[in-house]
Design brief:
The protein has about 150 residues and is of the alpha+beta class. It is about 25% helix and about 45% strand.
Length: about 150
């Protein structure tokens, strides 16, 4: 069964600065909360909307391989990453930036599904509910702090 998670925040910045922040090769590491660690394995990114990124996410001593295809999002000021290979049955993460009074509305929308069996039980504990809410709370906070004063 597919689920949808969404988090929205207004960040006092411009769409151009938001886009540039996400284009930075360090963005993924900056947006990954401790105690998780992330390491790029293969980077075939041509832009935020075109390319493949393979990374390893370390959950303590457990390495998790993730291959993501980057593609256009629903707006001209958005992009998406779709899991091609990884721990879940499916994962599509839309990063949507929309200019609003006071800055940019950042919307993270994730549509995902778990695998059956033990693999699905494990991903429900790590990539759902409270951990998913914490991940995007952290990501929005880090984005806000990184873009403070860039208007």
């Amino acid at each position: 069964m597919e689920k949808v998670f969404e988090r929205r925040s207004v960040i006092p910045t411009t769409v151009e600065h938001m886009w540039a922040f996400h284009e930075d090769k360090r963005a993924l590491a900056r947006l990954t909360p401790p105690p998780l660690l992330v390491r790029r394995v293969r980077d075939e990114m041509r832009s935020l909307t075109d390319g493949v990124l393979e990374f390893r996410l370390w959950l303590g001593p457990l390495p998790v391989r993730w291959v993501a295809q980057h593609e256009p999002g629903p707006l001209d000021t958005s992009f998406a990453d779709r899991m091609l290979d990884g721990p879940l049955a499916s994962w599509r993460h839309e990063h949507i930036f929309r200019a609003v009074p006071g800055g940019v509305e950042l919307t993270d929308r994730v549509t995902y599904a778990h695998k059956p069996g033990l693999a699905g039980l494990w991903t429900r504990l790590v990539f759902d509910g409270l951990p998913l809410r914490f991940l995007f709370f952290y990501r929005h906070l880090r984005t806000r702090l990184a873009l403070a004063g860039k208007q």
